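Hello Y.,

Per our agreement to keep a running log of every chain we model this quarter, I'm adding this entry. I've kept the format consistent with earlier entries: sequence first, then predicted structure.
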Amino acid sequence: MGYYTYYTIDMVGNLPEDAQKIYDFAKEKDMDFTDGFSVSQYGFDTKNTMKWYDHETEMRKISKEFPHILFELHGEGEESGDIWDEYYKAGKMQRCDAEIVIPPFDESKMT
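Predicted structure for the entry above:
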């Protein structure tokens, strides 16, 4: 059992070789990060949903080790509406939960 989430990580301000360095750093520290991600020049993608309960702790450590990079972690959980972005830089984090808005009824838009 457990809660599954689909994750992607984009990087801003990175050099082409940084992705492999980040992956190697996470592997050396035995982080769960390395279990489900594939490496690309601009970020990391999961092939499937995964359980990554320590994502905040691990991303803070990674961003502290690579302070010149802004990491954008996107998550979509298995429950409806569980969509969020977290931004990491130099060991700090900001979380932004999705805000689902349904516009009011507008009869003029009926077809």
